[in-house]
Amino acid sequence: MGGRPHYKPWWLSVLLLVALACNFPTAETSPAGPLSGEQLRQTLSAPLITFTPGAGEPTGEPPGEPPGEPSVQSPQPSPPSTSQPAWTPQPVPEGAYAYQSRSGDTLDALASRFGVEPGQIVTPPDVLRGGLLPPGTALTIPNVLGEVTPAGLLLPDSELVYSPSAADFDLTGFVSQAGGYLSSYRELVNGEDLSGAAIVGRVADDLSVNPRLLLAILEFRSGWVFGAPRNPNDLAHPIGLYVPNRTGLYQEIQITATQLNVAYYGWRQGTFTEIKYRRETLARLNPTLNAGTVALQHFFAMLYRPDDWLQNLYGSRDFPLLYTDRFGDPWQRAAAVEPLFPQGLAGPPLELPFLPGERWSLTAGPHQSWNAGTPRGALDFSPVTGEAVCAVSRVWATAVAAGVIARAGHNTVALDLDGDGFEGTGWVLVYLHLAEKDLVAEGGRVELDAPLGHPSCEGGRATGKHVHLARKYNGEWLPADGAIPFVLSGWLAQADARNYYGTMVKGDEIVGTSPGGARTSIIIR
């Protein structure tokens, strides 16, 4: 099943960034839509990366035009089974969609996906524009888009996100039992010798992408999980992405997870509405899809031309069929854990990540939670201590609430507020750029204000010592200035149109961003 495309490949440019950079906003950038190459260079000093044909890929003349849409073989879930608002929907006019909202939907995002204005969406009378729509809310939306991608759902959101559905998944044990090439594979990653399972796990943890999905894509493209490599002469490109200077399993898995997130969170926010196939054909995404399906449609469009794309997702080379066969029914798992955002979800009480009375600077407003593709969910704070710019600070970044240290290492701490020790359930706060020296130990319980680590420049790119703080709920990264506001000690995060810029507001007080610690950026708890 699956494998390489049956044609001569061509160059496909995509936007990729896997190194986290923060703290210093270098230029004005727009958060809306997939970032352009110039925006990436300005924001994060990242090069534009281009896919190129690989040495081992088959050649041949392109096939003919795509066939008619085959019947969908993938399991099709029912809409979320939640109680409907207390009103009677009117008959749906001809040429309109009868849409039931899904977890994570907002009116603004839906309007963008359907190509209409928010006021054109007919809603129950009690629906608020700025918040998350209750799953299962009946909406009537004009159909103005014309031809769109197939409507068949391919993957639940909880199978894309490292969510509660993966709480019982033993990645190392699964890879070992599968017995394929991956079980004996090892690779040096930043000087650290990692097994194949550890590489997949590292990427899954960092980017919060479900390890089952990463394994399934690797198996579909290369056969590494359950058997021998289909192309033993090209072990450097197991997924076939062929990005210059980005070889090996770790790089290709990381790029895969990044691109899945680009589409997933772009769909969530209404900024990602088209996919681009390998022959540069654009296709408007079907507005009724869920974010998990959009992520798969986008990633497979990076790899295949339209006819092979259709066959690999909906036809005879059905990826969802392989996924179910090898990893169990994803829709059955989803039924037990979705919606990822329950109705009425609100943020927990959180304090600023430092002790009362200390002077810190808001050095960066809302920016990528982890890397390109994740939403603008992170804030950066730097202690005002007079220390050297990139010195490991003597002061501590502290716990914003009580919880369990679900992960600690590689300059990262994940604070799990529900206390089960798993990052994919409930509220989790992720701290980055903490020095390895004196880093809190993994697994223990901490109380509010407990010391977690020292702000530093370690771990990714940084122009000054700081702590980077982002939120997840049920494994999904949350924007800082979204339907569920990011509030710390009563300070409300507000985004600017430019990445890394923004403010914190508390009553009549306003603190703006400054990478150099200007007086207007000082915030005291």
Can you offer a commentary on this structure?
Strands 10, 11, 13, 14, 15, 16, 19, 20 and 25 form a nine-stranded antiparallel beta sheet that branches. The protein has a four-stranded antiparallel beta sheet with strand order 21-22-23-24, with no helix packed on it. The protein has a two-stranded antiparallel ribbon with strand order 1-3. The N terminus is likely disordered. Helix 4 packs antiparallel against helix 5 and helix 7 crosses helix 8. The protein has 525 residues and is an alpha+beta fold. Strand 8 and strand 9 form a beta hairpin. It folds into two domains: 238 residues, no CATH class; 166 residues, Glucose Permease (Domain IIA). The protein is built from eleven helices and 25 strands.
Specify the overall morphology.
Answer: globular
* Total count of helical runs of at least 4 residues: 11
> What is the mean predicted local confidence, pLDDT?
85
Main beta sheet: strand number and arrangement?
Answer: 9 strands, antiparallel
Please identify the structural class as seen in this structure: alpha+beta
> Which stretches of 5+ consecutive residues score pLDDT under 50?
1-20, 24-89
Helix content: 10-25%
Report the strand count. 25
Q: How far apart are the termini?
A: 57 Å
| Computed Rg | 23 Å
* Residues in β-strands, percent: 15-25%
Number of domains: 2
